[in-house]
Each structure stands twice: as C-alpha cells, then as structure tokens.
Amino acid sequence: xxxxxxxxxxxxxxxxxxxxxxxxxxxxxxxxxxxxxxxxxxxxxxxxxxxxxxxxxxxxxxxxxxxxxxxxxxxxxxxxxxxxxxxxxxxxxxxxxxxxxxxxxxxxxxxxxxxxxxxxxxxxxxxxxxxxxxxxxxxxxxxxxxxxxxxxxxxxxxxxxxxxxxxxxxxxxxxxxxxxxxxxxxxxxxxxxxxxxxxxxxxxxxxxxxxxxxxxxxxxxxxxxxxxxxxx
Length: 232
Ligand code: IPE
Ligand code: IPE
Ligand code: MG
Hints:
Elements: E1 7-11, H1 15-21, H2 26-47, E2 51-58, H3 66-89, E3 93-97, H4 105-117, E4 125-132, H5 134-147, H6 155-159, E5 172-175, E6 194-197, H7 207-219
Parallel strand pairs: 1-2, 1-5, 2-4, 3-4, 5-6
Helix pairs in contact: 1-2, 2-3, 3-4
The structure holds 3-methylbut-3-enyl trihydrogen diphosphate (2 copies) and magnesium ion (MG).
C-alpha cells in the first residue's frame, strides 16, 4: 500500500494573474488566495497529512512594489488575528520558515506570538515560508556550522540547521499556475520529492485538487536512485 505523503509543500502561485484575468488589482488575488489557504489547511488536517508547508513570501519578493508588499503584510496580520483561535482549537502547530528580521516589529511579534501559542499542539504542523529563500537558508546553516566548529557534517547534521529541523522532508511539492520552476524553494529538502504542477491559479485551487495531487502521488513509483520494485 502506498502511503499518504507525510509532508506536502505548496508553491502558492498565480494570485496576480487570477486577479488580472478579472480586471482586478493584484491584491484582490492575494485576498482570494488567503481563502484558499484556509480551505487547504483544513483539508490537509482532515486528510491526516503531518506537515503542510506553504510558500507565502520569498526572499526575492521584496523586488515587488512597496504597495503590494504592504498589502501582503496586512493580509498576513489579518489572517493571524482572525484565525489563531481556530488554528489552536484544531491543534495546528505553526512554524515560520524564513528570516523574519526584515519584517516590521508588529509583524514579527504577531507571528512569533502565534507560533508560541500553538507550539504545544499535536495536530497538523503548518509551516509558512516568509521571506524564505533556500540558498539563504543553506548559507545560514553553513555559517552556523562553521561557528560551532563542525567540519564534516552528515546530511542529518545539515538538515538539523535548516528551518525544517526535526521534520520529514516533503514527499510532494505542488505548484499552482503552471510555472515549471522551483523559485528558490526548499532546495535541500525536496531532493527526492515528487512534483505536481497544476495549471490552476492558487485562488481557484480546491480541496478536490489537493486530493487529486495526492492520488497522483500514490501512483508514482519512487526509486530514490534504486531500481524498479519487482515484488509488485
Ligand atoms: C503568489 O502569487 C503569491 C506571492 C508570490 C506572494 P503571485 O503574486 O506570484 O501571482 P502571479 O504569479 O503574479 O500571478
Ligand atoms: C514563488 O512565486 C514564491 C511564492 C509563491 C511565495 P513567485 O511568483 O515569486 O515566483 P517567480 O518569480 O515566478 O519565479
Ligand atoms: Mg508568481
């Protein structure tokens, strides 16, 4: 029996294009995208997924206009203030992947408080990647190892210096909006992940689409560099 993916990581892409197709400002796409986040978090929890990682803001997204960045930060604050109670009640545990120090103090304290409040929960592990870049994450890991005098790190040691410390690597990466690239997302952790690309924009991605991606995942044969399993 092929098991469910333990960890699903999603590149939530296409908010801007979703809005543009409707002649709306980009921020409307982000707002609609938050609604998808709520639905997919619930769905992942009820499907029994252990870890869900959502790529919300990359270290390269600072290149966007200030107004869009401000809009995204406001949506993040609103999401946390409105949803924290429910996330907590559902046993969801929040972790941030990324360097929060670049954000305004208000955002840092809201986000840190949400992580602290949910830290003892035992349900779905929800990672939100914010100001996240895989290359920056690896440089930070190497720097920390150097400072600790670690000379020949094993893979497990490197993993223990990443934001995803103590979590299983993603088994499945989903990218919405049809782009065929990884955009600096979890480059170390997804070495052997299966990739599912859907043409749907993030605001129109549904629980059914998530289930479909999981069904497709179950049909894949993961080899991890070995040969086909002949016992099947
Ligand atoms: C993804 O949607 C959300 C973020 C990167 C914050 P985009 O904003 O990238 O939407 P497109 O790709 O321009 O359509
Ligand atoms: C990736 O989407 C980052 C997030 C989903 C947060 P982008 O829209 O920033 O990626 P590119 O620029 O198309 O590679
Ligand atoms: Mg995009």
